[in-house]
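Figure S7 source data.
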Amino acid sequence: MTSFTAVQTSFGGSDPLRVLREVFGYDHFRGPQQAIVHHVIAGGSGLVLMPTGGGKSLCYQVPALCREGLAVVVSPLIALMDDQVQSLRQAGVRAAALHSGLAAEASSALWRNLLRDELDLLYVSPERLLNGGLLERLQERPLALFAIDEAHCVSQWGHDFRPEYLQLEALALRFPQVPRLALTATADPRTRSEIIQRLALEQGRVFLASFDRPNIRYLLRPKLEAKEQLLAFLEEFRGDAGIVYARSRSRVDRFAALLQASGHDAVAYHAGMDAGQRSRALSRFRNDSGVVVVATIAFGMGIDKPDVRFVAHLDLPKSLEAYYQETGRGGRDGLPATAWMVHGPGDVPQLRRFIEDSDAEAAQKRIEHGKLDALLGFTEAPGCRRQVLLAHLGEVLADPCGNCDRCLEPQVLEDRTVAAQKALSAVFRTGQRFGAAHLTDVLLGADTARVRSLGHQDLSVYGVGKELAREQWRTLLRQLTSQGWLEPVPDGRGGLRWGEETRVRALLRGELTLELPATPARQERRPAIAAAAGAYAEAEPELVAALKTWRREQALEQGVPPYVVFHDRTLVELAARRPAELNDLAQVSGIGAAKLERYGEAVLAVIKGWGAQT
Ligand code: ADP
Ligand code: ZN
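Tokens for the predicted adenosine-5'-diphosphate complex:
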């Protein structure tokens, strides 16, 4: 924890915009923040629904500093609390966290501060809030507000249910005069009404922000050779922090090793590792720059690292909501981030089996199958990905987004009748039981042991497909499958057989033609940081690097993650504007009064030193 001593006294009675500027260094409120802040300062309660990265924290942090008394923030995870407290202290705010991980000394200092009204914000886990006499102590003090973060934990239907959260309904009874603000990134209407009911927020207001994350680029790819595809994708992101999701522990271990062998700074994370290994992985991800975590979905809530530049899915997630939440961990700082996923029909049977093999009741299983169908619908729907995704969350996006694979790489249709005829013949001649790999070998005329042992080199279709590359045949076979010309052999071993026979025969006779999207052989290009906003175009990469080096030293010295010192966004803006004086520095987003005083001269020196070299 930082040794920085807060000098700020209370901001009681201050104007929220002044607090936003002087403490947090931001010029404007974002989206519904302003309305929320005013509502709470006036004593109102409510529920805030905002996507990850939307800026929920300021919704209670600003009122906490404007209202008299202590603000109590209920948060489910220690890592989350410590992060917030460190960031607030850097901004000169008197904040502390009370949780089971706290050393005795720190704990008694905290209680002392609390009883002397020397704290602006107290983060606390629900257990600690409700047990051990804290509520009684709080009842004797002036309270600014209660904020209930990750409020969906109160919902039994959500996947992060925490029984302790249910007891929070006591707050409404014991502190009827204190505003209560619940916050969550869950968009699901059912969870929403459950939060309102359980936290007794019926009298409060609901603030719903758009769930669009415009800086996230959605790129979906047919799954061919996931290994090579991932490595090719990551080439564009060397040195960036990111998350790679895989379905099983063994796949996580395998892919983490693969990335390490390819020179990436990768760590594995899954529930099969012991607690020590997991927390080491987490702390490397948070504190070092450019670490890639390969993880199962066990790696999730509480990851509020702002500069995650990509989230890659090697396997289909469980549902479209899960996909939205997982990809939402990228780009919280508002800079461009990429959500990349390889997917194919091969993932589906296993997911269906997971659902069938679970001990859920039949009705629940039907819901899970339905969620999977919605996800598959998203992967297969023509047109803009973001429009489909937002429609699922109940929002209408009027125009295609221009920042997804469908918008960026419009599909051109090609007549593929002849190639389809060859593929369908190959399926038939080999006996309607082989998978895509072997069929491709036959079409390409490959001399494999399997081909020879089966005598397939003597078939009329052997080697008739040399005009297409292996990858193109795989794509075609997948397209034929997704359109029903072929279907998986039901034993689930990946073999393919003909779909509806009359239709297939008509195609083979040339009575039907087949147009399919052309497979672009295009390289995936990294969205240049320049695309983010005009100012970023002018950021000198070497100066950004120099500022990052300086930031790393500061962070190491204080034992905090680098983003607690300054966000990437601030460094990029510094490198674009290259301020020469303290006054100019104060204009940069993310530099409030405390950080200006603390780091201003040093930052100017880095910029000046860089200028002298060039
Ligand atoms: P959430 O909790 O909703 O995921 P955070 O509160 O962590 O989001 O905010 C996400 C990022 O946006 C943080 O880096 C925060 O500093 C930044 N941010 C929030 N509000 C503003 C604002 N009004 N102006 C500029 N940056 C903001
Ligand atoms: Zn789009």
